[in-house]
Amino acid sequence: MQELKLSDWLPTTNKEVKIRGWEELDVILFSGDAYVDHPSFGAAVIGRILESYGLRVAIVPQPNVNDNLQDFVKLGRPKLFFGVTGGCMDPMINNYNANKKRRDKDAYTPNGDIGFRPDYATTVYSNILKEKWPDVPVLIGGIEASLRRVTHYDYWSDKLMPTILESSKADMLVYGMGEQPLREVVRLLQKGVPFNSINTINQTAVLLNKDESIPKNKNWEDVEIVSHEACLQDKKAFASNFKIIEQESNKLAARRIFQKVGDKTLMINPPYPTMTEEEIDASFDLPYTRLPHPKYNKRGPIPAFEMIKFSINIHRGCFGGCSFCTISAHQGKFIASRSQESILKEVDTVANMPDFKGYLSDIGGPSANMYKMKGKIQSICDKCVAPSCISPVICSNLDTSHKPLTQLYQAVDNHPKVKKSFIGSGIRHDMLVPEFNKNADPKELDDYTEEVMTKHVSGRLKVAPEHTSDPVLKLMRKPSFSYFHKFKERFDKINVKHKLKLQLIPYFISNHPACEAEDMANLAAETKDMGFQLEQVQGFTPTPMTVATVIYYSGYHPYTLKKVRTPKTRKEKDEQHRFFFWYKDENKAWIKKTLNKLGRQDLLNVLLPENDSWRKNKPGKPKHTFDDAIPFNQRKNKAKFRSKKKRR
């Protein structure tokens, strides 16, 4: 690999700008993350995209907001605009856990150090820039801006907030993945069009003053949602907005959305069509160094970079539409897949890095096994408004063939320097179950599962059934837990066939809307009965732009406007979470008391029977490996669980 020079990174200081021989800059980017020049880091992608249009671009990573604000003026005034992002994660999720306690690590900062990213970073950075440079346009983007583009519930302040355009004072918001709208913004600016006249670009949002006229576009239909002020007064009205927002975000021919915010009008233009293979390849093929900026060499490793250093992202988007997930809200539900040639080119680049040892940590995406999947008949997709392509059932028009992905894995493994490639991204196990994926070729599904288990897992396969309760799963837009049982049967057969000792690690969520204590008790009992002692568990965290968060705040389902109860108090949340850890001595008396009070002795007999072999284990250690004998009472207890659910 050719030795890199400082000028191979985008400049971050005046000295680095001078090294390139530049006298002025066209665009200056501000980011809440440390600068890692890699296609998995949004600020680097946007910087390289702008650079590819011939612009002189610099980046100010993690500017200091606690001093004299020198970082916001040191590079001077850009010719075109400032770009601002809070980073790869919403800063509030990055800074706080589900219990609103400040985290002790920031994965996007050298050494995991905290304190380098302010809360609500996009708003903080943008306001400072507007104060320092009032006549320079500010364009905001990234996941924080994208998910806060309309009236939204903010869990950390426990209140509704208006569009981030209002609080940040920014001139334009780019939502979703930024390559396509930025290309058009730059094209118009280079033609001499004033920034404040650019307001009809797809996938952008602007806040119009009361004296500004609505821009005309004969190709767009319009829809108005309930105003911000009405949302503040009526939770049901707020909930009703979300159905429109989600459907229009995922339509190929979407309407333009308007919302009144005080005496201003928010205008959200329709999204671009899904990126073509050629477009997404072009983004990944840009000249990234794939390394953190040298300025961090003495500060320690950046955890998020170390995690993805030897990984390959093969597609964007997710058609799962899970109620608690923001991926489709930001990346869209339609899959944008890279070509095999582009992926193999990146594999070769990684394989020739000096510290590569032969192991790729991940060949994946938002969901590992959606590569190359799309509608069989495009005209059907063009009219679709469903937020998920696989809930409540897999769409008959969806091509779920895993053959291209299996072939890709095999092509990657043929590289002479690759000893093994792992699948670290989450796999949609339900799509590998023929009883659920009825239109797929069962042999093809088995071939993929076998390929993954025999060649791409280090010992544990992680999947996310999320819950065992059918009502909760329905609200989550996840399939019945019965399909997890089916998948485990296939998993166990392959384990036996190949004499493997792989473990199946299921992920679950507590405190989700519609989830009651009894549901969590059933989850604990049913998974224990399957031979699991849960490790990978989490509490539901309300994040902007999800169905589950709208329900959490408003109490109403946005699609039906029917009431849905959600555990909200700290006591309720802690108690639901305790069921995950039934095997800990400090929880046993409480579980016994709770289940007796609920009249669920059947669950109590499963979790804490008098002669329980699990009691002999140390907390946190499973008695059963995940592929050996299942407790004898499985069938009997499973029948009890199902009958109780049906009665409810």
Plain-language structure description:
This protein has 648 residues and is α/β, with parallel strands linked by helices. It contains 24 helices and 24 strands. Helix 15 (403-413) runs parallel beside helix 16 (442-455), helix 16 (442-455) crosses helix 18 and helix 19 crosses helix 23. It is globular, with a radius of gyration of 25 Å.
The helix content is: 25-40%
* Assembly state of the chains shown: single chain
> Can you tell me the overall shape?
globular
Summing up helix and strand content along with how strands pair, one would put the structural category as: alpha/beta
Count of distinct strands? 24
Indicate the radius of gyration in whole angstroms.
Answer: 25 Å
**What's the main sheet like?**
9 strands, mixed
Family: Belongs to the UPF0313 family.
Organism: Snuella sedimenti
Binding site for [4Fe-4S] cluster: 318, 322, 325
Domain Radical SAM core: 304-584
Spell out the key features of this protein.
24 helices, 648 residues, three-stranded parallel beta sheet, nine-stranded mixed beta sheet, 24 strands, alpha/beta, metal-binding
